[in-house]
Amino acid sequence: MTTLAFQDFYPDEISHCYGCGKNNPEGHQLKSYWFEDTKHLDGKCLKTIAHFTPDVKYTAIPGFVYGGLIASLIDCHGTGSAAAMAYHNEKRAMDSSPALRFVTAALNISYLAPTPQNKELTLIGTFTEIKARKIVVNISLLADNVECAKGEVIAVLMPDSMLPKNS
Asked: pLDDT for 119-134, tens place per residue?
């Protein structure tokens, strides 16, 4: 049995994000999940995880990843984690309606160490604020167990005005 990522539950009509949209074949296709050893805990203890291996096209200086990719990964893991937490808090399945899709209201990134190219990056998300329409997620980005960047994503429930209009 395959475990689906949070992003796999996004409705098709709003799943085109360059960072994590399943309907964007040119994008990063980032996939976020619950930590298996914490998914049974109280919501404030839950953590999320994602993995991504950047290739040479994401170079800043030979051998190192450019900061825009790092920000993109933190952003997308944060909004995906926020959506999953919203479903968790409502005790709903992620494929239930109405869809709970979150977007970024604010993103703050700190670059702590050079991020190496061609190494698997691990993103770990923890929650610092959980409300019905706003969730704050702190993300650590690690390479070889070294924290290279950290970020805070303030995610808000996507407004209806962003939904595609039916023709």
From this structure: 999 999 999 999 999 9
